[in-house]
Structure formats: structure tokens, C-alpha cells
């Protein structure tokens, strides 16, 4: 039975991947910093308006780079939502800083600006909002908080390529932003990511830290005869193979985003009667946000209902997925970080969350099937 399931996710393929990979192989020099890397980075700059985009091996890798750039270390605190992937926290914990987990807003599962404000101490150095599901956090409030307390604002936009807030692309509003091109994202290259540098004063150092602490970027640009080791460094640039695959995907950003948004709207429409009947909730998108259809999430009354819904959808041939466990309750989160306040939403909502199939090419009948199955399961509220 399982093999017949409509999967929760299937990576998008533009059709140009194999051709671009062959070009990269023909060029023979597969190391980082070639033509495909340059084209990907230029597309990301054009799309986001960032001062500079640097490809990385993953969003985790980009967050690690951001952590080094921000200069946080032992004794410093970094505020982030508890409901996120481990990398948002571990990148800063690796520098010796303490992740401080705060609650999320129940409607969006994005960081609650009031909870972030309440967690600020004289040791706070950075604020790391996560744009869950490709829906923006309240960037007006977070920007104000960062300005007022002179904090580094670093956007974890792992899920957010193609999405915006008041017309500004996500990842372009903090001093730094990070993107993921993992296979599960809207666009990907298996494993990949990017650091967006929005503050021009950070560009030169970011290029140095990105490439093993060396001035190799200046050497490549022909500005110096030899490069030198001048700072701390990571080995972050991916090979041209990853960049070739990624370019074939990035070129289709508009199409993929539009298709995913259409599917998202179809789910929203099909499930509206169940939402109105109070049987479930869908994740909210505030009016000033343009989401990218990364996730369609349902919140049930409790974990038991969520699990029954997942089983019923599986029986109808649809694979669904859960998501993050709250980090403040995880063993490493408790050891390496601390929670501020009670975090009622981050503690309970993940146990009620279910994600529906979301990828470029989900059959058109799926939203109606979901609505029918869930309507039958929870009281016959048929669309
Ligand atoms: C919010 C968030 N941040 C960071 C990451 C890490 O991304 P990557 O797998 O590219 O390292 C993920 C992965 O799903 C994520 O959801």
C-alpha cells in the first residue's frame, strides 16, 4: 500500500539539470567559484536585492557563517523561536553562545515579538526569526526590537525563497539572511544553501570567512596576486556540480512559487467548510505577507485527532508529515540553551500539526480528497 501513496514531498525538476551538470563536467574544474556559482549568486542577488549572496553547502552552513560573522561567543545570548529546526540554535551554540528559546504566535507558528522582547537581557546579541512555512514573521516589530537593543537581526529564511513581507523578499531585511536548498525545499540541489549579506560593511569579511579565512575572493577577482590567510574561516563554498543543479532550479523560481501558491489556495478553499465548522485550523498568513506555498499546515484540536487524521489520509493514499519538536524540550536544547517564559504554544502546537502533500505536480484532486476524508472522519461536515 505504502508504495502507492501520493508522497508528502517530491523534489521539483526543471528539466535542465542534466544538461547543466554535463556542462559542469565538461568544464572539468568542479571546484567552487566557477560560472554556475556566479550565475546562482547573481540570480539570488537579483531576486532578493541583497548586497551579496554566497552559496553554501546548506542553510545550516550559512547559519554557522552568520554566527561567526556576528561575533557571538561564550556569555552571549541569541533569541530564537523554540519551534524551529536544530540548526537555528546549534549554529550559535557552536560559537559558545546560549540559545534562548521563546514562544511562537499560535496562528502562524512564527516567533512572537512580545516573547522575544521579554527575553532580552544585557547579554542578548542576536535575534534570529524563522519564517515558518514561507510566511513572514512580523518583521516591523522585530526590526524595531533589533534597532532599539542594537541586536544582530539574522533571518532564518530556510523555507522562504520566493516569499516576501510588505513587498520585501524574506532574507533581505536582517543584516544577514540564510536560505536552504535542501531537497525538501521549494527549490534545491540535494544539499545546499546561501548566505544573504544585506549590510555592505559585512561583504568583504563574509567572503573571507566563507572561504577558509582567506582572501581568495579578492584573488579570483584579480585584485591581488596571491591570497593569504587573514581571519577565521569555514569551508562553505559548494562545488560547481551543486551550483549547476541549483541554477536549473533557480531559473524556475517564479513558476514553482506560482504553482505551489495555487495548490495552497486549492487546499484553503477545499478545507474552508471544515475550518468554519471548527473542526480544524489552517496556518494563518497575515495580510502583509506573500507566502511561497512551502507548507500547508493543519492544526487539530489535539494530538489524538491529528494522528487519526494522518491515518485516515494514509488509508486514502495520501502521505502527510509532522514537523519539529520544540527545541526547549529537547535534550540538547535543555543542555545548551534555556527557555524564556512558559512557551505554551511552542510546547503544545507541534503535537497537533499535520502537513499536507506540497510539491510541484500534486494531482488536482488531492485538496478535495483531503476535505472529504477529514469531513467524514470528524463529524460528516462535508464540503
Ligand atoms: C527553519 C530551518 N532552518 C534551517 C534548516 C537547515 O537547512 P539545511 O538542511 O539546508 O541545512 C532547516 C531545514 O529544514 C529549517 O527548516
UniProtKB/TrEMBL annotation:
<keyword id="KW-0808">Transferase</keyword>
<dbReference type="GO" id="GO:0019180">
    <property type="term" value="F:dTDP-4-amino-4,6-dideoxygalactose transaminase activity"/>
</dbReference>
<dbReference type="InterPro" id="IPR015422">
    <property type="entry name" value="PyrdxlP-dep_Trfase_small"/>
</dbReference>
<dbReference type="InterPro" id="IPR012749">
    <property type="entry name" value="WecE-like"/>
</dbReference>
<keyword id="KW-0663">Pyridoxal phosphate</keyword>
<comment type="similarity">
    <text>Belongs to the DegT/DnrJ/EryC1 family.</text>
</comment>
<dbReference type="InterPro" id="IPR015421">
    <property type="entry name" value="PyrdxlP-dep_Trfase_major"/>
</dbReference>
<dbReference type="InterPro" id="IPR015424">
    <property type="entry name" value="PyrdxlP-dep_Trfase"/>
</dbReference>
<keyword id="KW-0032">Aminotransferase</keyword>
<protein>
    <submittedName>
        <fullName>dTDP-4-amino-4,6-dideoxygalactose transaminase</fullName>
        <ecNumber>2.6.1.59</ecNumber>
    </submittedName>
</protein>
<dbReference type="InterPro" id="IPR000653">
    <property type="entry name" value="DegT/StrS_aminotransferase"/>
</dbReference>
<dbReference type="Pfam" id="PF01041">
    <property type="entry name" value="DegT_DnrJ_EryC1"/>
</dbReference>
